[in-house]
Amino acid sequence: MKILNLYAGIGGNRRLWGESHEITAIEYKPEIAKIYQDFFPNDKVVVGDAHQYLLDHFSEFDFIWSSPPCQTHSKMNIANSLSPYKENIKQLKHGGGILPRYPKMELYQEIIFLTHHFKGKWCVENVIGYYEPLIQPQKIAKHYFWTNFLLRDFVGEGRGMGKDESVEKLSKLKGFDLTSYKGIDRRLLLRNCVELELAKHILDLAVTPIEINKKLF
């Protein structure tokens, strides 16, 4: 298949996809795109805005995977939030928290767009948010997935990540050795990788999917 991999990062979701597909990856940061290209030299890597690239090129692909930035949807917005009000101004001075902010709605824009305009198979992935999702997802392994095909139950190792995970352990878990790369947050990049086996599971289902009623979305 011709696959579009949006917000590709270093390619965590792509790690077990093999080399039988024609894959185009979109990553906004050049230094991260270079890492992706080093690990997947046969893929076409584009440095640019994934949200706009989807709009301009969606009809060129058979399968689209999108992982829009999750920070503004994450439960950390509540668990680690800071109040801007005067009674908590001392808390602000200490830093280490998150001021109230809008969730980025590109996530739902892409789900709606793909549902109504894209003829191939697609998957949009994000974290479980701090609010009730505006469009009902399928929930697997602590993530939300929106697709136009049914995701069978995923039976994996359930290898969750805690805050104390070391870079070395994450490197082994995710299959990326980033020791030669400087000026990057290795731990953050590795934590942002989708579970390898789950991403492969979803792609395999996209090849021979079970159709679902689009009214669910």
Textual characterization of the structure:
The chain has two domains: 2-69 and 104-159 and 195-216, 3-Layer(aba) Sandwich (Rossmann fold), CATH 3.40.50.150; 75-102, no CATH class. It contains eight helices and seven strands; from the N terminus they run ββαβαβαααβββααα. It has helices at residues 30-39, 50-57, 76-79, 89-94, 106-117, 167-174, 186-191, 196-207, and strands at residues 2-6, 22-27, 44-47, 63-66, 121-127, 138-140, 143-147. The longest helix is centred in the middle third of the chain and has 12 residues, at 106-117. Mean pLDDT is 86; it is low at 157-161 and 213-217.
Task: Name the strands of the widest sheet in spatial order.
Answer: 3-2-1-4-5-7-6
- Content-based structural category: alpha/beta
**What's the CATH superfamily of the largest domain, by name?**
Vaccinia Virus protein VP39
CATH class of the largest domain: Alpha Beta
Q: What best-fitting shape do the alpha-carbon axes yield?
A: globular
Unreliable stretches (pLDDT < 50, length at least 5) are: 157-161, 213-217
How would you sum up the major sheet? 7 strands, mixed
Question: Strand-and-helix sequence, N→C?
Answer: EEHEHEHHHEEEHHH
CATH architecture of the largest domain: 3-Layer(aba) Sandwich
Helix content: 25-40%
The multimeric state of the shown protein is: single chain
Strand content: 15-25%
> How many domain units?
2
What do the pLDDT scores average to? Answer: 86
Rg over C-alpha atoms, rounded to the nearest angstrom: 18 Å
Count of DSSP-assigned helices: 8
